[in-house]
Design brief:
Rossmann fold, 2 domains, 48% helix, single chain, alpha/beta
Length: 224
């Protein structure tokens, strides 16, 4: 847990989001599957839709980690729709935009749960020492712009010096380019790489990605 993180030996802290600071609301994914099926008029059982959604969510996440790019949210929707035997010629981009907006509304209604113990207090402690914080997150169904809205609603945005989301720079962890972006955005250009600590739950994307680049890293495991 957070007590394992040495804040005194580092000057800048980079945090992953999913399963590091937050986890999905227990009802959100099921509600999103229902919304997806009804919005696109999918004629398959909801449990089958849920399996296809999870399959492509996991697959695209793995592709992002291997290639270092970012499969667009709308591309994920289209892969799912194709697998569910929906004719893609009948789908318009404005529909995809409309569905995304509805899913964002649902996400902000069934907001993620903060799992990092005493997070505001911990961020306070870092900032009170004159140190800096960023968010560094691979995205899939939920874009960076939506995560910013959530962090504002949780009064967490006030602590964050900058955000990096894979959909916004078309690059995913563990690619070194995304860790270079962290280095580029830190205001102190003289800061030694080892003074930058990246904290995340993924051994490949977070821990290996950060340490291969030259950052310090902390692999976080919650009992969820």
């Amino acid at each position: 847990m957070k007590t394992d993180i040495d804040i005194h030996s580092h000057s800048h802290f980079s945090f992953d989001l999913w399963l590091t600071l937050i986890k999905s609301h227990p009802e959100f994914k099921a509600k999103r599957v229902e919304l997806f099926a009804s919005f696109f008029e999918v004629k398959k059982p909801v449990d089958e839709v849920a399996k296809v959604v999870k399959y492509y969510d996991d697959l695209c996440n793995s592709i992002n980690e291997v290639i270092g790019g970012n499969v667009d949210t709308f591309e994920i929707y289209l892969l799912i729709l194709h697998a569910l035997e929906i004719d893609l010629k009948t789908i318009r981009k404005d529909q995809l935009n409309e569905f995304y907006q509805k899913s964002e509304d649902l996400f902000l209604e069934y907001r993620p749960v903060v799992i990092f113990e005493n997070l505001h207090q911990f961020f306070d402690e870092i900032k009170n020492q004159g140190k800096t914080i960023n968010i560094l997150s691979n995205t899939g169904f939920i874009k960076g712009k939506t995560m910013r809205k959530f962090l504002i609603s949780e009064n967490l945005d006030q602590y964050i010096d900058f955000h990096i989301y894979s959909d916004e720079i078309n690059c995913s962890k563990p690619d070194p380019k995304i860790f270079q972006e962290v280095k580029n955005l830190i205001k102190n250009p003289e800061l030694d790489l080892k003074q930058i600590l990246h904290i995340g739950d993924n051994p490949l994307a977070d821990y290996k990605g950060a340490t291969d680049f030259g950052f310090s890293a902390h692999l976080l495991t919650h009992k969820i």
